Amino acid sequence: MEKSLVGARSVLVLGGARSGKSAYAQSLAEGAAAERLYLATAEPGDAEMAARIARHRAERGAGWATREEPLKLADALLAESGPGRVVLVDCLTLWLSNLMFAGRDVAAEVAHLAQAIGALEGPAVLVSNEVGLGLVPETKLGREFRDWQGRANREVAEACDAVVFVAAGLATLIKPAPRPALKLR
Question: How far apart are CA 29 and CA 86, in angstroms?
Fold first, then answer.
């Protein structure tokens, strides 16, 4: 793991679409342990998504086991976590949309995930999109999704030891972060 993340057992990697967050998260995981599990939340709902999943699996190469879990992420993470094994969760954004479309209790599922992060027996890297930096979505469903994603990212960030934000392929550590002292005049 990078020098600035030494001692972090759980890391949340945030960023926008195509920001480089997944590649960064993969490099963190590859530096953390020889035994690696990719915990995928995507489902191949159409040909394009199936091709995307196959391409990502090929890009990871040897040395990675894969488990697909679109809904019961916290339970899968707890089951797969162990000493000497890193779990890479990619991504919380697809997991959240899966929960919403399945009619699940999103608040309870996110709380369960945050609780699970604190109980992991091995290191984990979780990837999520930061969707709240753009335009307000036009539809009610889009606004609900954006709001839930923001809440989920906050809860997971609080549960993780470290948080990294990736933009344009560049990573910035945002937790732990120095807290500047304000001076009164």
Answer: 6
Instruction: Tell me the C-alpha distance between 123 and 160, whole Å.
Output: 10
Does a structural domain hold residue 30? yes
**Helix-, strand-, coil-residue percentages of the chain, each rounded to 5:** 45, 25, 35
Number of Cα atoms under 13 Å in the Cβ half of residue 57:
15
Q: From residue 26, how far is each of 6, 32, 160 by CA, in Å?
A: 16, 10, 17
Residue 183 lies in a domain: no
Which residues are annotated as catalytic?
56
Domain of residue 35, CATH code: 3.40.50.300
Q: Give the structural domain span for 103.
A: 3-175
In total, how many domains does the chain have? 1
How many whole angstroms separate alpha carbon 174 and alpha carbon 13?
A: 10
Query: Using an 8 Å Cβ cutoff, are 174 and 163 in contact?
Result: yes
Q: Which stretches in the chain have pLDDT values below 50?
A: 1
pTM score, two decimals?
0.91
CA distances from 71 to 24, 63, 93, 112, 139 (A): 24, 25, 12, 12, 24
Q: What is the pLDDT of residue 51?
A: 87
What is each CA distance from 142 to 132, 145, 172, in whole angstroms? 11, 5, 28
